[in-house]
Specification:
Strand order of the largest sheet of chain A: 4-3-7-8-18-15-12-13
Distance between the termini of chain B: 29 Å
Strand order of the largest sheet of chain B: 2-3-4
Helix content of chain B: 40-55%
Number of helices of chain A: 4
Distance between the termini of chain A: 154 Å
Order of helices and strands of chain A: HHEEEEEEEEHEEEEEEEEEEEH
Mean pLDDT of chain B: 93
Order of helices and strands of chain B: HHHHHHHHHHEHHEHHHEEH
Structural class of chain B: mainly alpha
Oligomer: heterodimer
Number of domains of chain A: 2
Low-confidence stretches of chain B: none
Mean pLDDT of chain A: 83
Helix content of chain A: 10-25%
Largest sheet of chain A: 8 strands, mixed
Largest sheet of chain B: 3 strands, antiparallel
Radius of gyration of chain A: 30 Å
Number of strands of chain A: 19
Number of strands of chain B: 4
Structural class of chain A: alpha+beta
Number of helices of chain B: 16
Shape of chain B: globular
Low-confidence stretches of chain A: 14-35, 51-65
C-alpha cells in the first residue's frame, strides 16, 4: 500500500527541510560548516561532558596549579563533534620529532591521547598538538586547524634546557595549512608566564610562511574580543585586559587562570579538487588556546616590602646600638683629696 | 711534598678563602649564563629565585618533594625524594661543612657586610655563652617546620586540617637568601609583599622583616644568620661521614683560646674540648680560621680523605702573625 499524494508531499517537504538544515548525516559529510565552527583543542571535555561523569579523573582535569608535574599520558579533546573521516591529529615533540595522534570518538566527544613517556626528562619542553579537518562545501574548501601548546615539564627533572634556545623557542610545522605561533608564552623553566596586561604577540603562518592580511581575533573567557589584521610578517599583537575582579579580596586567587583563544582566518582564491569535490576558493581557520594569570603588580607592593625591611633594619640597628652602649662600662676613676 | 705542605701550612687562609668565595659566588649566582647546571641538591644557598643560578639550594626541592600524601612516599615520588636526598648527601660529604664557609653565597654576602664594618672601624659583637646556646636551637626548629609544613599540606597531621597550599615553600618565603641574592642579578621582585592571600602576606612580610634584621645583624655579628640556618642543621646530620675533616689533638692544646676568638660563629668548643678528635660542631662552617690561629704544632688539622691539607704549625702561625703585625 503506497503513501497518498499529500502525505508524500509532506514527507518530501520534511526531507527538504532536513537536508537544508543539515540534519542528515550525509549533508554533514558534504562539508557545509555551521557558523562558529572553529575547532579548539582543550584538556577538558567539551561542555556537557566530563563533569557529568565525575571530575575526579586526573587525566581529564587540566593540571591547574600543578602545571609542572608531568604525567605519562594526557588526553586532549575537541569542542565539536563534526569531524570528517579524514581528519588527522599530529604531535610535534619538544625535540622536533613527530608522531601521529589517534583520534577517537567516545562519550566525551572527539579526543586523542598524547604519550609523554619516558618520564625521565628527555621530553622536557613544549609539545605542539594539531588537528586538521578539511571539507568542501558550496565550492569552498574549508580547512580547520586546531593547535595547542602542551607544556610537559617537571621541576624534578631539573632545568637543563634553560639556555637551550632551540628547545625553548616555539616550533612550527610547515605542513600545517594555517598555524598560529606565539613566542614568550613560557619562561626558560617551561612555566607559563602570561599575565593579564601583557602584550600577547602571535605570528600567523601559511605552510610555514608568513600570512599577511590574516584576520586575527583574541577572545578571553569573559567574552572580551579584539580583532586585528596580521601585518606583512604575519604578526599581530594585543594587550590582554585585566578581567579578574572578585567581589571580595579574600576570594582573590593569584593562580586564577583566565583563558584566551587566538583565532586566525584567511581566505585565498586557491582552486582545486579535494576528494572528488571541486572548489574555487579556500577558507582557513586556525585556533590556539592559552591561559593567563593575574598580573603580579596587581597584588604585590614594593612600598610595603621595602617599608617593612627598612623599619626592621632600623629597629634592629637601634636595638643593637642601645645594647652596646649600655654594656660599655665607665672607666673607673679614682680621686685623691690631698688636703684631707 | 714537604715543601708543598710547608707552603700550604704557611699560607694565609683568609686570603685564599676570600678569593675562593668570590669565585664560588660568581659560579653559583651567575653560572647559569654559561649553562652550568649543578642540579637541585646543592648544600649551599644557591637560591632558586636567582634566575641565572648554576644549581639550586636543596631546601627548595626538599620542601616540594615532601609535599605529598603518605601513600606516595612508597611510590615513584618517594623514589624521587630519596634520589634528591642521596644526591644532597653525596654533594655534602665531599666538602663537609666547608660548603658553608667557602661556597655559600649568603655566607659570602655576610662576610662582605662584615668587611664593610671592619673598614669603618666598628668593633664586632659577640653573643654570651648563654645566649649562644639558646639561639642555636632555632635552626632545628626551622628545619622541622621546613619539613612538617609541606607534609601538612598533603596530609592531615595529628588530626589537624590540611594546611593551605601557600605554605608549600614557607621557609623560602622567610629566608633572606630569597630577597638578597636575586638583587645581584638585577631582580628586585622578591622585595615586594605578596597580598594575594593572608598566608602569603604574612610570609612575605616576615621575609622582609628578617631581611632587615639580617643586614643589621650581619653588620655587627660575623656570620649572623648562620646560627639560625636550617641547612646547617641538616648538614650536621651527615657531617661525620664527610671526607673533609677538622680534627684536634687535645694533648697539644694549651687552651690559649685563639681558635675560639677568631671563630666567626663564636664556637667555644674548639678551645674548651680537649677530648674529642672530631671537633666540627653543628654551627661550624669549616673556614679553618681556627687552624690558622692555632700556635701549637699540628694541634688542629684539616684533612681530606685522611690526608692533611692544612695544619696548625708554629712556623705558619708566626709567619701569619708577622704579616699582620699581631703579637701572640
Amino acid at each position: 500500500m503506497g503513501l497518498r499524494g499529500k502525505q508524500m508531499d509532506s514527507l518530501l517537504m520534511l526531507f527538504a527541510v532536513m537536508l537544508t538544515f543539515g540534519m542528515f548525516p550525509f549533508s554533514a559529510a558534504a562539508g557545509r560548516p555551521t557558523t562558529g565552527d572553529m575547532l579548539v583543542l582543550s584538556e577538558t571535555p567539551p561542555a556537557g561532558h566530563g563533569a557529568a561523569h565525575g571530575g575526579n579523573d586526573g587525566r581529564r582535569r587540566e593540571q591547574g596549579h600543578a602545571e609542572h608535574r608531568a604525567t605519562a599520558e594526557r588526553t586532549w579533546y575537541l569542542n565539536l563533534h563534526d569531524l570528517h573521516d579524514d581528519a588527522e591529529a599530529a604531535i610535534m615533540r619538544p625535540d622536533g620529532s613527530r608522531a601521529a595522534g589517534a583520534l577517537s570518538h567516545g562519550r566525551d566527544g572527539w579526543s586523542f591521547a598524547v604519550d609523554t613517556k619516558p618520564l625521565d626528562g628527555s621530553r622536557d619542553g613544549v609539545f605542539n598538538l594539531y588537528v586538521i579537518d578539511r571539507s568542501v562545501g558550496g565550492g569552498v574548501l574549508t580547512v580547520r586547524a586546531a593547535k595547542a601548546y602542551m607544556i610537559n615539564h617537571s621541576c624534578g627533572w631539573g632545568h637543563k634546557y634553560k639556555f637551550d634556545e632551540e628547545r625553548i623557542r616555539p616550533k612550527h610545522d610547515r605542513s600545517i595549512p594555517l598555524e598560529i605561533v606565539a613566542p614568550d608564552l613560557w619562561d626558560r623553566n617551561f612555566h607559563s608566564k602570561t599575565m593579564s596586561g601583557d602584550v600577547l604577540s602571535v605570528r600567523v603562518l601559511r605552510n610555514g610562511a608568513p600570512a599577511p592580511g590574516a584576520t586575527v581575533s583574541f577572545t578571553t573567557g569573559s567574552g572580551w574580543t579584539k580583532t586585528i589584521e596580521a601585518d606583512e610578517n604575519g604578526k599581530a599583537a594585543v594587550q590582554l585586559i585585566g578581567d579578574y575582579y572578585p567581589e571580595k579580596w579574600s576570594l582573590f586567587d593569584a593562580r586564577k587562570r583566565g583563558t584566551v583563544l587566538v583565532t586566525a582566518r584567511l581566505e585565498t582564491p586557491e582552486q582545486g579538487v579535494y576528494r572528488g569535490s571541486a572548489y574555487s576558493g579556500t577558507r582557513l581557520v586556525a585556533t590556539l588556546p592559552w591561559r593567563y594569570i593575574p598580573q603580579r603588580r596587581d597584588y604585590t607592593s614594593y612600598l610595603y616590602g621595602l617599608g617593612i625591611g627598612v623599619f626592621f633594619f632600623t629597629a634592629a640597628a637601634a636595638g643593637i646600638y642601645t645594647h652596646r652602649e649600655r654594656r660599655k662600662k665607665p672607666c673607673p676613676e679614682v680621686t685623691f683629696d690631698e688636703r684631707g | 711534598m714537604n715543601a708543598v705542605k710547608r707552603f700550604l701550612n704557611n699560607g694565609d687562609i683568609n686570603r685564599f678563602r676570600f678569593w675562593f668565595q668570590v669565585a664560588a659566588f660568581g659560579l653559583l649566582i651567575y653560572g647559569g649564563f654559561l649553562a652550568v647546571d649543578l642540579g637541585n641538591s646543592l648544600p649551599a644557598f644557591s637560591c632558586v629565585f636567582a634566575e641565572s643560578r648554576a644549581g639550586a639550594c636543596y631546601l627548595y626541592p626538599l620542601q616540594h618533594q615532601v609535599n605529598m600524601p603518605w601513600a606516595q612516599f612508597l611510590g615513584g615520588r618517594g623514589v624521587g625524594f630519596a634520589v634528591g636526598l642521596a644526591t644532597f648527601i653525596l654533594f655534602f660529604i665531599l666538602f663537609n661543612k666547608a660548603w658553608c664557609g667557602y661556597a655559600c653565597p649568603l655566607g659570602t654576602v655576610q662576610d662582605w657586610v662584615s668587611k664593610v664594618r671592619t673598614a669603618l672601624g666598628i668593633r664586632f659583637s659577640l653573643y654570651s655563652e648563654r645566649t649562644f646556646r639558646r639561639l642555636k636551637g632555632i635552626k632545628y626548629l626551622l628545619l622541622a617546620l621546613l619539613v612538617l609544613l609541606p607534609l601538612g599540606i598533603s596530609n592531615s597531621l595529628v588530626g589537624a586540617p590540611k594546611l593551605p597550599h601557600d605554605l608549600a615553600t614557607a621557609y623560602c618565603m622567610i629566608c633572606p637568601g630569597r630577597t638578597v641574592l636575586p638583587i645581584f642579578t638585577g631582580d628586585i621582585s622578591q622585595l615586594a609583599i605578596d597580598f594575594s592571600s593572608k598566608t602569603m602576606t604574612v610570609l612575605t612580610g616576615l621575609g622582609m622583616a628578617i631581611t632587615g634584621i639580617f643586614f643589621a645583624g650581619s653588620f655587627v655579628k660575623r656570620r649572623f644568620f648562620c646560627l639560625f640556618c636550617p641547612m646547617s642543621a641538616l648538614q650536621y646530620a651527615f657531617s661525620k661521614a664527610g671526607l673533609l675533616r677538622l680534627t684536634k689533638i687535645g694533648a697539644k692544646c694549651t687552651r690559649c683560646g685563639n681558635c675560639s676568638r677568631v671563630c666567626d660563629v663564636g664556637i667555644r668548643e674548639i678551645a674548651d674540648d680537649v677530648t674529642s678528635k672530631n671537633i666540627v660542631q653543628d654551627d661550624c662552617m669549616m673556614c679553618f680560621k681556627c687552624v690558622a690561629a692555632c700556635p701549637e704544632e699540628k694541634c688542629l688539622t684539616a684533612s681530606f680523605l685522611g690526608i692533611p691539607v692544612y695544619e696548625a704549625t708554629v712556623e705558619g702561625f708566626a709567619n701569619r702573625a708577622r704579616r699582620r703585625n699581631v703579637h701572640g
